[in-house]
Each structure stands twice: as structure tokens, then as C-alpha cells.
Amino acid sequence: MSAVAGGAATRRDSLEFGGGGPAAALQEYARKWGPSPLSPPLALGPVGLRPVSAAPGAETAKYRAVSSLAQGLTSNGMFGSSSSLLSKLSGVGTISELVGGGVGGVSSVGVGGVSGVGVGALVGEKPPAGRSRLLEDFRNNRFPNLQLRDLANHIVEFSQDQHGSRFIQQKLERATVPEKQMVFNEIIGAAYSLMTDVFGNYVIQKFFEFGTTEQKTTLAQKVRGHVLALALQMYGCRVIQKALESIPAEQQQEVVRELDGHVLKCVKDQNGNHVVQKCIECVEPTALQFIINAFAGQVYALSTHPYGCRVIQRILEHCTPDQTAPVLAELHAHTDQLIQDQYGNYVVQHVLEHGAAEDRARLVAAVRGKVLQLSQHKFASNVVEKCVSHATRNERGLLIDELCGFNDNALHVMMKDQYANYVVQKMIDVAEPTQRKVLMHKIRPHIGSLRKYTYGKHIIAKLEKFFMKAPELGPIGPPPPGAVL
């Protein structure tokens, strides 16, 4: 329904508290609540609202637009529902941005709407609080060919905006040296705040990746004195990691020295542990002795920690034998507990996969005699599999012999178990041909019962694969009566 130009409106909008049309509605609103946030600056006098435009009917059309906005905001509760105007606003992130703590904030948001004219055009066209006109226009795709040089004096603001930050990152990858320098000159003064910003940190990272040597050095100097705070911060920890990948050895060592005395705090922190891992990966091991020293007497505790277990693995990968020796000594002292721990089992697996032969041998020896028990354990079963895969030929033979020596009941338990069945499969895969033949004939009488179990079917699939490859074993299924195994 629409109002008649120059006459009274024939419908009642949600802001109309009495009759008299839109003018009376806004006047009544102003009397009760103060000036309407939905109206343009108007003079309220004893004779009512003074029209801004002298064009016939202009004020009616304007009030109809504003009244429609009010209707959208209030038709389903104070701010409407998902089908109201809020669902049609462009460039507005949250209700609080729209209303600014109340509907008064509407005047600061440009909203595409009536007849191609934004409501912002009716009420001043101000961008959201704290956002420049340039950024607002960019966010609304009004500058399709924007270049870095066009952002002069707005680099920091763009860096802290989701879309602006992405734009700068993309441009920096192919920017000329003068363009990089222009951007760098603006961000260097706000470097620390950008390092800890949800979007700004990526711009700083791009400079560590694509900046000049001088720019990287200058940024690294900005990190000095703040390494611990940044390492423990969600976004700052990413900047420190990127810096460690990009700066010279001398500066790397300056950075890591600030963590001395705070190693365990960082290792147990969800952000800091990544920084310690990156230190171990990128920095000369001799400069990291303070990390090894901090781990003395703590290896078991850290190996069973969700973050600490990762750091232990990095030490085993990158540090010198002299540095890893005391770490491994503590690991071997707690092998039985670590094998069954939800995090410690990964450390043991890592030693089996990457460790020295003597360390692998000690771990395989710890598993021997316990294959049945450990194979049925959620975490330890992974270690048994790794033992079978990475043991020496002789050690592997002993582990498979242990399985072949089981009585029928123990073997049956393993094959239908949700964890142990994978150990049996691994043994079938890696066994020597003669040993595999013995193992398969031990399993063969159980074919019928295995079909009843979800995990037993995995074993059958594995057997079918090998029986097809070795016709001399005969058809899949129980051996014929009187067959010699």
C-alpha cells in the first residue's frame, strides 16, 4: 500500500502510534523518544515537519522510503527477522554495526535499497565508525582497478580489514621495490599491533616472505623484546615462525635467546609450542642447548602432553646425537607407559621410524612377549604395527613367530579385535614367504567364524589377496580333512 502524494497515508506503519500519516508518526516518535534515527535532519516546529525539497510529492516519497525501512526493522520484533531488511543489507557485518547499540546506528551505514538510492544517501552517507571512505568504497567494489599506490595513508587501516589485508597480500607478491617501500613505510610504525592483529599479521608475514633484506631486518628488530609475548599470542606466534624461516642465523639466535627461561611455558602453550618447534627446525642446534637443558627430567611429562610430544619429535629429528642422547635415555626408562599413552605412543613410533638401530632394538624388545596384550590396546596397537614394519628381518621374524605360537583361542581373539586385526594384517603383509605360509595356514581354520565379525572380514580380504597370488596354497577356506599344513 502506498501513500497518496500530498495527502494522508492510507496505511499504518509500525512507527505510526496514531493517525495523521508519516509526519504525525515521526512527530509522535520525536515527542516520546527524541529525534527519529530513521529520519534525515529535519526541523520540528509547531506546524509539524518542514519538507527539505520543494518538488511536489518529494517529501512523501522520501518518508515512504524511511517508513519502509522502519517497517523492515520493526515488523518482526525490534529489529525484524531473517526475512526483514537486515537480511538484505550489504556490507553490514553484525546487528551491532547496523544499530550501533540501538537503532541510532543506522544513520552511519550505507544501505542499498529504495529506487537504487542507499538509505545512507538519505541520512548523510557516512561510512561505519572508524572506517574511511576509501576502505568503504573498496569493500563495496567501487574501485575495481585499485593499486597499492592508491592506498597511501590507508595501508594500516586496510591491513586490519579482512578484504583489505587480502588485497595487500596479493599485491605484495608482485609489487615493485618502490611499492613495497611505500607500504613498508606505513606499517613499520604500527608493526607490533599488526603482528597481533587477526588480519594484519598476514601482511607482516608477507614482508618476511617477499620483502627486501633490509625490510626483513628492520621488522626483525621490531620483534626484539617482544618474542615471548608474541610467541604466546594467537597471531603473533605465526609472525615469529615466519621470521625464523626468513632471517639470517645471527638474528635467529637473537630471537630464540629471548625464550631462554620460558621454554616449558611455551612448549605447553597452544601457540608457543609451534614457535619452539620452528626454532628447532630452523636454528643451528648448538644455539638451542638451553631447550635441551630445560627438558632434563621432563621428557616423560612432555612426551605425554598434547603439545610437548610434538616438540620431543622435532628434537629427535633435528638435534645432534649429544643432545638427543639424554632425551632418549628418559624415553627408554618409561617405554611401557609411553607405548600405551595417547600422546606418548607417537613419540615411540617416531623413534621406531627415524631413530638409530640400537634405539629401535630396545623398543622392539619391550614389545616382545606382549604382542597379544598390546595389540588389543587402542594406542599400543599402533606401536606394535610400527615395530613389525621397521624392525630388522630377524626381529620381525621373532614377533611373527610369537603370533604363530598362539593357541587357536588367542589368535581368534586378535583377528576379530578392532585394533589387533590390523596387527595381524601387517604381519601378513611384511612376513617372509615361508613365514607367511605358516601364518596363513594357522588362520585358515577360522575363516568360517571370521565372516561373522566386522574386523574379521578384514583378515579374510587380506587372505583372499594372498591365496590368489599363491595358487599352491589351495582355495580360500578351511583346509581339507587330513591336509598336511
From TrEMBL:
This is Maternal protein pumilio. Keywords: Cytoplasm, Repeat, RNA-binding. One of its GO terms (biological process) is post-transcriptional regulation of gene expression. One of its GO terms (cellular component) is cytoplasm. It comes from the Eukaryota. It comes from Papilio xuthus. Transmembrane segments: none annotated. Residues 130-467 form the PUM-HD domain. PROSITE patterns: PUM (PS50302), PUM_HD (PS50303).
